[in-house]
Design a protein that fits this description.
This protein has seven helices and twelve strands. It is an alpha+beta fold. The chain has a five-stranded mixed β-sheet. A five-stranded antiparallel β-sheet has the order 5-11-10-9-6. Helix 2 runs parallel beside helix 7. The protein starts with a helix and ends with a strand. The mean pLDDT is 82.
């Protein structure tokens, strides 16, 4: 009985005080029902550790932030061309010591307005007036490819979009073989197009646009196929970006290489954090 009372006294005296328990790595504290233990860290002159999660807006800021706070345990995770996100965990686990991972900086590669404009209209058929208006609004992005002599200039594409005229020629033939009665049918449809005030412009199969897919990223020359059709007596026009996904992948790899080469010895891992 005396031993039990002494044990209760000991427990009462330890209320709210941390105590070590064999087999449990973290200290424990006993508190009465309805009572919480409050942290008094906010009364200290400075926090016990950095607790910060922020999103930076460009690769240069990400690099500067990592280089300022990086430790031996810091790691950067990048989740590939699809996610296009770089996450620096400043206080990541050390092989010999787990960490809280409370200090994190994130950079998500933001696409440019120009890339969004072209990607939004990619493979969408438009009437001539709508297509011409789109080309006029974005004509500054169209460029002449130095290795493609026949690639149209921005001025040529603007005039083509405004003055293109097309007509459809249809040829239908039917023949009968007298020896066996077999019927042969031939259907041929041909669309002829001309552009320019005097029809002097060559209608291109493709043109090129110079874009930065990511804000602050590298410039890429992106080919776009030029297409036009006559449907229900009306001329429709559109363009098809060639391997737009590949362009984003190359843009991501360029950002990754830039970050990897500038953050000293901090390791990069392809993973989702």
């Amino acid at each position: 009985m005396q031993q039990a009372l002494q044990h209760l006294v000991t427990l009462a005296q330890s209320l709210g005080k941390p105590m070590e328990v064999p087999g449990i790595p973290a200290p424990l504290a006993l508190v009465p029902n309805g009572v919480n233990i409050e942290s008094l860290e906010n009364l200290l002159p400075a926090p016990s550790r950095i607790k910060q999660k922020l999103t930076v807006l460009d690769a240069e800021s990400f690099i500067s932030y990592v280089n300022r706070f990086a430790t031996q345990a810091t790691a950067v995770f990048c989740n590939g061309p699809e996610g296009r996100t770089f996450t620096a965990v400043i206080d990541y686990h050390d092989p010999a010591a787990p960490a809280w991972r409370d200090h994190v900086a994130t950079y998500r590669c933001p696409t440019t307005v120009e890339w969004g404009n072209w990607k939004d209209k990619d493979r969408k058929r438009m009437d001539q007036a709508t297509f011409a208006e789109f080309i006029e609004d974005n004509v500054k992005d169209i460029t002449h490819h130095p290795e493609q002599n026949n690639s149209p200039s921005a001025a040529d594409m603007l005039e083509i979009s405004r003055t293109l005229e097309a007509k459809k020629n249809i040829t239908f033939r039917q023949g009968i073989r007298l020896d066996n009665g077999q019927v042969q049918l031939t259907y041929n449809e041909e669309i002829e197009g001309r552009a320019g005030e005097a029809g002097q412009l060559r209608i291109p199969e493709e043109f090129f646009i110079a874009l930065k897919p990511f804000l602050g990223g590298e410039m890429f020359c992106v080919p776009a196929r030029f297409r036009y059709r006559i449907q229900e007596g009306r001329l429709t026009m559109w363009f098809e970006l060639v391997r737009a996904d590949k362009v984003l992948e190359e843009a991501y790899n360029a950002v990754r290489a830039k970050i990897e080469g500038a953050i000293n010895d901090v390791p990069l891992y392809e993973a989702t954090f």
